[in-house]
Design goal:
Blueprint lengths: L7 E5 L3 E10 L2 E11 L5 E2 L2 E2 L2 H14 L6 E6 L4 E9 L3 H13 L9 E13 L2 E10 H13 L3 E7 H12 L7 E7 L4 E7 L2 E8 L4 H11 L3 H9 L8 H32 L7 E5 L6 H11 L2 E4 L15 H18 L7
Parallel strand pairs: 1-6, 6-10, 11-14, 14-15
Antiparallel strand pairs: 1-2, 2-3, 4-5, 7-9, 8-9, 11-12, 12-13
The chain binds adenosine-5'-triphosphate and magnesium ion.
Length: 352
């Protein structure tokens, strides 16, 4: 399988599927494959699979076009069916943690414990006063099983199930590195989901998924201009070149500002909650990813409201790209959407 230890990262978002494969050599990480396929509206809703056939077909096309049949894959889940919580437990050994976690987890999870897969990661083994900080992750089995089935039917061999927000952290660490003694926000704004992480000294302090995203702007354009989904997407992303009428351009701008206020208000609410419940101090900077971070009004509104500088993440920054094999303009255009798939592609065989 391409003689490669890395897994193919598969990000099944509600707007599109993204796949990425990297190869590690002495000279660094090289891009082997990157591709994407749009999904029909409503195929994925809030991280759950609604149109199984459509998702399998698109992923199968990607697998075949990129000659990835049988390759081991890392996938991710997000949304309401995933619960991530930082909890404090009395200090204990890994064995004690493994045997007590289901019981401990029950009180933090709003679902029947039998319906979820639970995993833990020790964040700080000595958080003080005999306590340790642990990250608890629970995901509904139903959603995980759907993702596994899709990957298998599309011809892949799924071996790792990750979470969108962890993939964003990994891609950030690869390309930028967490600054010591600083608190940064990582915000991934997709079509129907916003993943927010706050990381202090490289340790996750706060994470939350909000069920909102750039679709809100597509819907507003559809309603206000009386057009269909495809046309609205076109107006949204093709502003300047293909949208000839300046009246339409101005209207799209106006709607983008309105939607940006709605999305940023939700983000701000989460950040305020983090500030009120943590001692980590103010954010020094916010790093944005996700296709919808290309709405210029979002960046401006975030900078104004959070009073921090906002920077876009380039997931390919520290990855070697052969310009003869890849269309650089295409990669640049898709870079905002690529973060999760590149983060997943950092996973290796044998990882947990
Ligand atoms: N140039 C652009 N300007 C504004 N919005 C854009 C642009 N390019 C893409 N988008 C929007 O980005 C969104 C897709 O982003 P992304 O690929 O991160 O989403 P996803 O991962 O498929 O969805 P999910 O929210 O379920 O994670 C769509 O709403 C799309 O319209
Ligand atoms: Mg996404």
């Amino acid at each position: 399988m391409l003689g490669n230890k890395n897994l193919v990262g598969v990000d099944i978002g509600s707007h599109s599927i993204k796949i990425c494969l990297l190869r590690e050599t002495a000279k660094g990480l090289h891009l082997q494959r990157f591709d994407f396929a749009p999904l029909p509206p409503e195929a994925m809703v809030d991280g759950a699979v609604m149109n199984f056939g459509a998702v399998v077909d698109r992923l199968k096309d990607l697998v075949q076009a990129n000659k990835l049949g049988g390759h081991k894959a890392a996938l991710s889940v997000s949304g309401h069916s995933v619960i991530i919580k930082k909890i404090s437990l009395p200090e204990m050994t890994d064995e004690e943690l493994a045997s007590s976690i289901m019981w401990e987890a029950e009180q933090y999870i709003p679902f029947d414990i039998k319906e979820v897969h639970v995993d833990v990661q020790v964040l700080d083994p000595k958080a003080g006063q005999g306590q340790m900080d642990v990250l608890l992750v629970a995901a509904k089995k139903e959603v995980i099983n759907d993702h596994v089935s899709i990957a298998m039917e599309a011809g892949l061999n799924p071996v790792i199930m990750d979470v969108d927000t962890f993939a964003v952290q990994n891609v950030f660490e690869l390309n930028y590195g967490f600054p010591p003694a600083e608190t940064v926000g990582l915000i991934n704004i997709g079509a129907s989901m916003i993943n927010i992480d706050v990381v202090s000294n490289g340790i996750l302090q706060f994470t939350r998924d909000i069920s909102m995203g750039g679709n809100l702007l597509t819907e507003e354009i559809q309603r206000e201009l009386g057009v269909g989904f495809e046309e609205a997407e076109h107006y949204k992303t093709g502003v300047g070149e293909s949208v000839s009428s300046s009246a339409i351009f101005r209207e799209v701008q106006r709607l983008a500002e309105r939607v940006s206020h709605t999305l940023v208000t939700e983000i701000q609410r989460s950040i305020e909650f983090f500030k009120a419940t943590s001692l980590s101090g103010d954010l020094s900077r916010v790093y944005l990813s996700g296709g919808s971070c290309q709405i210029p009004a979002i960046i401006k509104t975030l900078e104004q409201r959070l009073e921090v500088s906002v920077e876009l993440i380039n997931p390919f920054k520290n990855i070697v790209i052969d310009t003869k094999r890849f269309d650089i303009a295409m990669l640049q255009r898709l870079a905002p959407s690529a973060g999760v798939s590149v983060g997943l592609a950092l996973r290796r065989r044998g990882d947990r």
